[in-house]
Amino acid sequence: MPRLIVLTHPDCLAHDPGPGHPESPARLQVVLEALRGHFDDLDWRQAPAATRESLLRVHTASLLHTVLDTPLQGLRHLDPDTVMGPASPQAVLRGAGAAVAAVDAVIEAGTGAAFCAVRPPGHHATADTAMGFCLLNHAAIAAAHARDVHGLDRIAIVDFDVHHGNGTQAIFAGERRVAYFSSHQSGLYPHSGAPGEHGMGNLHNALLPPGSGGMRFRDVWLERLLPALDQARPQLLIVSAGFDAHRSDPLADLMLEAEDYAWITHVLAALAARHAQGRVVSVLEGGYAAEGLREGVVAHVGALRQACAGAGGR
């Protein structure tokens, strides 16, 4: 029976943007402890380091030089919020490598799902700019790998982080083979992702007003985003799994509960079963409250795990 794959690496804990920064190593520690405490049948794998070739499918050589090749003794601010330390290059290489390895695993296995328990997050990073706590865009790197190495021409990236994945959208705005679907809080960083931003017909954005809870979240997906996603018939589903829309998160104002993350994951897994042989690659994005991360990740991974078990019975 297929088991849910979890990819991670100790290097992802070593990235430290400094005291008081919301994107701290403690975030990933909470995730790892929650997964190990709730599930005893996950297929844990060590994330490899990404190759330059896989990164250059998405990012410019100049950004890779900035992020990977600049020696650091202390902290370096790439912008007021995006900070690197000496261990950051290895952390981001493992994060991107996890996403690439997850794509290989689910495609070569034919069924199943993978969750990348990595940091820093990635969905704000554009082709040439690190921003919003993000150094490189792991979900975009995974999609480009699926396109160029595995020959897929219908790839969907689903993003339920509370912030819009401006980097992911910008990277694929002119690429018909990759479609992007996002729900995110209105009026929040990075102030992109308006419903009228369509790209080549491959961008699908829905705004959630501050204070929105699970009912509004589910309605937006059921009425606007899921029908378009179903119509796209993706051969692979990549999830930018942020848990900062949880009611406890200090950086946003949505009111999602664990049940909402379980619901969206079940729905996405069912859609992947219809169109993509059950292939789902999920990559950790935001989430800055221990409670929200713990509840959200357990709900999300539990639903993916259940989908893998169901795939084994078909």
Can you describe this structure?
The protein contains ten helices and ten strands. It is α/β, with parallel strands linked by helices and 314 residues long. It has a single domain (5-312), classed as Arginase, Chain A (3-Layer(aba) Sandwich), CATH 3.40.800.20. It is globular and about 50 Å long. The model has no long low-confidence stretch (mean pLDDT 96).
Primary descriptors:
single chain, 314 residues, alpha/beta, two-stranded antiparallel ribbon, 42% helix
Helical content class: 40-55%
Shape: globular
Low-pLDDT ranges: none
Query: Structural class per helix/strand content?
Result: alpha/beta
- The CATH superfamily label reads Histone deacetylase domain
CATH architecture: 3-Layer(aba) Sandwich
The CATH class label is Alpha Beta
Biggest beta sheet attributes? 8 strands, parallel
Total of domains = 1
Strand content: 5-15%
Terminal residue distance: 10 Å
Mean pLDDT: 96
| Total strands | 10
CATH topology: Arginase, Chain A
Q: How would you spell out the order of helices and strands?
A: EHHEHHEEHEHEHEEHEHEH
Question: What is the number of helical segments per DSSP (H or I, 4+ residues)?
Answer: 10
Order the strands across the largest sheet as they lie in space.
2-1-5-10-9-6-7-8
- The gyration radius over C-alpha positions equals 17 Å
